[in-house]
Amino acid sequence: MGANSSSFNELSTNEYLKRLSSPEPINPIDPYWNQLLSFSFLIPINSSDGKLLEESTSSICKGVAINNCKSGNFGALIRNFLVRATELKASVQCEDNIFTWQTYNALFIIRSLSKYFVEHLSEELILQQFEAKPREMGGYKDPEEMGPLLEELMNSLVEMLVDVPVMNFTYALHLEALNTLLVLMSIQMFQPQPAHKFTVYQIMMQGRCSIHACVLVKVLLRNFCNQEKCPPELYRQSSDMNSMVASVAASLWSVMTLGMGTKTEKKEEEFQETLLANQSLLFLLVLTNHCTGERGVSNPYREALFSFTNIHEESSVSQVAATFKMDYNLLFSALCSTLRDDQTTLLLYLLIHRNSGVKAFIFSRTNIDQLVMPLLKILYNAQDKNSHHIYMALIILLILSEDDVFNKAVHEITLKNIPWFKERPISEISLGGLLILVVIRTIQYNITRMRDKYLHTNCLAALANMSAQFTGLHPYVAQRMVSLFSQLSKKHARVVDQIRESAVTETDNEDPSEQNLMADLAVLEEVLRMVLEILNSCLAASLHHNPHLIYSLLYQRELFNSFKTHPTFQDILQNIDIVLSFFSARVEEHGKRSNLSPSEVLEVIKEGSVQFRRDKLKKFPDLKFKYVEEESPEEFFIPYVWSLVYHASNMYFNASRILLFSLSAS
User: Where is the chain membrane-spanning (predicted)?
Assistant: First the structure.
C-alpha cells in the first residue's frame, strides 16, 4: 500500500506494511505515515479482487493482530487519522486534494485491519487491539479529552458524515467512512449475541455518536434521495496521468472498490454508480434495526427515522416530536426509482409502517402507480427474488390495502401495455386489476412451490381488504379469480382422496404423513373460505360494477356444487348461489328466444345488475385485515439486514465465518 504499490502480489512484502505489522512502535507523528499513506492501486475490474486483496494482505493483518499489543501501531494509525480528521473540514474548504486522499488512505487501512479483527477475533481481543499502545510514544501525548480509541474513531466518522460536504473529491471519503462503520458493526454477523451487548453498538446507541442521531439519519436519507453518482474520474482511468487530481481520484476509487468479492463480475455498464446512496441506505438499515426490543435501551436513530416530517408542511401539534424535516417528494421519487432493491423495499416498509407522516403522504399521491408497479413487478418475478423481498413487498401492499381511498384509487388508474406482464397480452387494465392478477399469481406460485402459509395469508388479506372496492374488473381478472378457486378446489379434492386412502390402510401407529395431510386440508379449507369471502364481498358491495365477474361465475357455476353442503362454506355459498340463480334465470329467460352470444349474455347481466336487490343477501362482517408486526421482529430483521449488507454492499465478507444467517437462505 505504501509508496505507490500497484500490485496485490507485492502487498505482503511491502516494506511499509511490514513495518506497520512489526513489533516496532511507530510514533503517531512519524514521517513514515505520510509515506505509508501515499499509495495507489490499479483499478480492480472484477469481483474476485476483494477476496484477492484479503488473501494478499492476510499475513500483514495477522502480523498486526499478533504484534499490535506490543507496538500499538494500529492505535498510532488511528491517532494519525484522528488528527487528520479534525483538520478535514478546513482542507475541504481549501480543496486540498492530497490531504483528503491521505486521510482516505488511512481510513482504508483502518477498515481493512478492523475487518480482519472482526472476522477472526473475539470482541474482547478486538477492544484490546484498539486500546493497545506502547510504553513510550516518542513524546506524543493523547489529548486530555480523548476517550477510548474505538469511540473516538466512530465519533470521528459520524462527524465526518454530518459535517463534511459531499463533493467530487470527498465522495470516496464519505463512502469509506460508511464502509468502516459497517465493518465495525458487522461483528453481529460473526458473534452470536444480542447487539446491545456489543461495545460498538453501545457506542452508537448511547455514546457521543448518539448526539448526532437526528442529523446522521437526515444525512443518510439525503444521500439516498440524491442518488448521486460516483464522479466518473473515480472509476475510469484518466488518459492524463500527469494530472494530480485525476491520479488521486483514481487511487481513491481503486481502493474503494476492493471489496467486490461477493458479486459476479461486472462490466462497466453494469456498475452501480450510486454507491454512496447504497451504502448510506444499508448503514441506515443497520442502525435502525438493532437495539429495538431491550428494556432500558433506546435507539435514537430508529426514533429519528420514524418521526421526521415533510419540509413543505406547516408544523402542527402532532409534529411537536418531529426530529427533522425532509422533502417527501424527493424521498418518494427515490423510493419509486429503486424499489427493485431489497434494501429500498425494507426502507419503504419501515417508513409506511412506522412513520405516520410518510404514510399519509404516500396515500395522498395521485401517482401511486409509480410505487405500486415496482412492488407488483417484485411479486411477478418471485422466482428470481428471495423470500424476504417477497414478504416485504406483500406486507407493503397489505398496509396500503388497509386504506379505502387507496383501494378506490387503484381502479381509477388505467395502465396500457405492461411489458413485464407475460401471461397474456392486455392492452388496457386498471392498476387495481393488475394488482389482483399479480397477487393471485403469487398465491398460485406459493401453493405449487413454496407452500408458505404466511405468504398466501398476506396475499388473501390484501385482496380481502380491497374486495368491497373492486370496480370494473377486466374479463381476464374475473377469470383468474374464479380459476383460483378452481385450482384450490381440485387440490382440496386430491387431499380428501389421499386422506380416505390413508384411512383404509390405517394402522395402530400414528402416521406422520396423515397428520401432514390433515394439516394441508385445514390450510386449504381456510384459503378456500377466504376466496369465497372475497367473491361474496365484491358481489355484495359492487355487483353492478363487475359484470365480467358474474359472467365468469355463471360460466363455472358447477365448481361450487360440491361445497354447498360443506359446513365450512355453506353460509357464504348461499349468498353466491342467490346471485348466480338470479342471473342464471334471466339468461335462460332471454335465451328462450334465441341463443345468446357472450356479448348478449353480458348485456343481460348488466341489465339485471340494476334490478338485483342486494338486501336478499346475508350480511357478513366487512373484510378488514390489519398488518401486525410479529413479536420479536429482530429475529427476522437483523439477519435480513446483514444478508443485504453481505450481498449488496460491494464489500467482501468471509462467508465461512458468518454465524448470523445461512447463505443458502439469504
Answer: none
Strand-pairing partners, residue 415, are 429
pLDDT digits (tens, 9 = 90+) for 366-408: 999 999 999 999 999 988 878 899 999 999 999 999 999 999 9
Measured over the CA atoms of residue 410, residue 413, residue 417 and residue 420, the dihedral's sign is negative
Residue 217 has, within 13 A of its CA and on its CB side, a CA count of 28
Cβ distance 476 to 430 under 8 Å?
no
649: cell is 454492499
Nine cell digits for residue 432: 387495481
Yes or no: say if 184 and 109 are a contact pair by the CB < 8 Å rule: no
The per-residue pLDDT of the chain, averaged, comes to 86
User: Which range among 190-194, 277-281, 335-339, 588-592 shows the weakest confidence by mean pLDDT?
Assistant: 588-592
pLDDT of residue 419: 93
Tell which residue, 359, 352, 302, 346, has the closest CA to residue 636. Answer: 346
* C-alpha dihedral, 73 to 75 to 76 to 81, nearest 10°: 130
Lowest-confidence segment of 11-25, 310-324, 426-440, 596-610 by average pLDDT: 310-324
Number of H helices, E strands in the chain: 30, 4
CA 613, 615, 616, 619 dihedral sign is positive
Q: What pLDDT digit, counting tens, does each position of 23-58 carry? A: 999 988 888 998 888 876 544 433 456 677 888 889
Whole-angstrom distance, CA of residue 279 vs CA of residue 177:
10
Task: Please report the DSSP string for 378-447 in residue order.
Answer: HHHTGGGS-HHHHHHHHHHHHHHHT-HHHHHHTTT-EEE--TT--SS--SEEEHHHHHHHHHHHHHHHII
Please spell the DSSP secondary structure of 502-564, one letter per residue.
HHHT--SSPPHHHHHHHHHHHHHHHHHHHHHHHHHHHHHHHGGG-HHHHHHHHHTGGGGGGGT
140 pLDDT band, cuts 50/70/90, is low
Distance (Å, whole) CA 491 – CA 447? 10
pLDDT by residue (tens digit) across 287-303? 999 999 877 789 999 99
Domain ranges of the chain: 8-139+148-326+633-665, 337-504+521-616
Coil, helix or strand at residue 653: coil
